[in-house]
Amino acid sequence: MNEFVRTAFHGAAGLKDVIDLRDRISPATFEREREKIFKKSWLMIGHASDLPVDGSYVIRELPVANTSLIVIRSRDGKVRSFHNICRHRGNKLIRSGTGCKSTITCGFHGWTWANTGQLLGVTDESQFLNLDKSKLGLLEVATEVWEDFIFINLDPQPKETLTAWLGELAQGYEGYFQKQQRVRSYRVRVKCNWNLAVNSFTEGYHTAYIHRNTAPDYQGGKSNPQRHRPFMQLLERHARYSAPANPDHRVTPAEGVAWTYGPKMLPAADFDYQGMPPGLNPGRAQYWLFDVIEWFPNVLILPGKHYHMELEFWPLSAGETELTATAFAAPPKSYSQRISQEFFRTRFREIVREDMNTLEAQQAAISTGVMPEVFLSQQELVLSHHYRVSEQMLEA
Amino acid sequence: MTDILPILPPAFAGLAPYLDWALPTEQERHFRRVGATLPEIHAFYDAVMPQIHAIAAHLDTFPGADPDALPPPERSLYNLALAFMEASHPVDLNWQRTDIDDAFPFERMEYLAPVDQR
Fold first, then answer.
1. What ipTM was reported for this prediction?
2. Domain residue limits, chain B
């Protein structure tokens, strides 16, 4: 019998392999998720490099928390987030978009705050009889930056720091993300519950089937025909696994052109792991393609040697999700490198379109309510883990 | 916004029949591909493939990597090379259609351009 790749599981004990998804997508569960998960978790909402100078800001709408945030680099260099609300009468301070502001002035009655959140000026102040300006700073939301990622926590008193929240995943990626820039980004709205949407991207079982037209031979190969994940780790909240590269992947003609001018990227693999941060390929697989990391609850990071993908799943309601898929790679140094990257980014787009296309169909099927349970393969245990963590937070 | 003159550098004038592929954004190139016929895609691919290395070499005689810094003929050539990559997937993967079966409708995708689409 051949020696096929077997998955090294870490932390999988006790995970259910039969789950009922019907309750997971109900409006009642979603209302509990909003309060107990999305308002209690550290959520990744952007990149510090998108706020390059003091005063740079971005407006982030967060329908899941029924709020809008001003995410801004303050004059002291720290990235802060504020509810986008005027402390006088509750106007929305900045309507949308991005920009740069040393002070924030409300268009309604002209109150002004520093970009640190401190109230600087009240117009016609003598007409206010009991105003303590020191208590009318903008309503701040806990914000921390890890590597290039901005995380917020809507809990007024977060139970733990971001580092504690990330746990083991806080180490091992030093400097990796900062070396890459956004090369393409797509956003879709799907009529699908956010949990189901996340689940669709956190198992590799589907890859041989759903991606048969776009990446027919990128994973697995002779030593691993069923594409078993070589490594899978279920952490306190988060999870990660490695995708197995196929060492016999056939490079097609245009793909060969691409790898003439730039490093091998999806659907090919670069087996020279020199210089990779220790967090990548954590199981030290011989044939490694990329990792899939679930940052509970709603972000997936897929880091490869020369690129990474970020997927964000923002619930709009129990049955609708906004999904953003973004590809990152090293900044191109020449036009030929840009041409090389164009192969990667357009192929990435087509692969993601296949993943996206199952979401509404699955939502429709599960929401019929006629199917009592879902049977999971060991290769799909990240789904079971996601719901175990979810239940723990909902019951806390 | 970039106005692209529909001309190519002299060495690549033979590709002029395919200039309608030389579109400046990914969305336009993607829509061009799915709106084409399969024989049209193959003809475009077959015309560019023998010259793609010469195209890359010519573009790399210009410093940097900013498409907006290229002279108009080279910018058209660059757009054409990106369109070649866009058109390569149905050909290299031997699709029987210009778009994949079972893929999310491209019309429903928002092409965010935080850096650029170039």
1. 0.95
2. 22-96
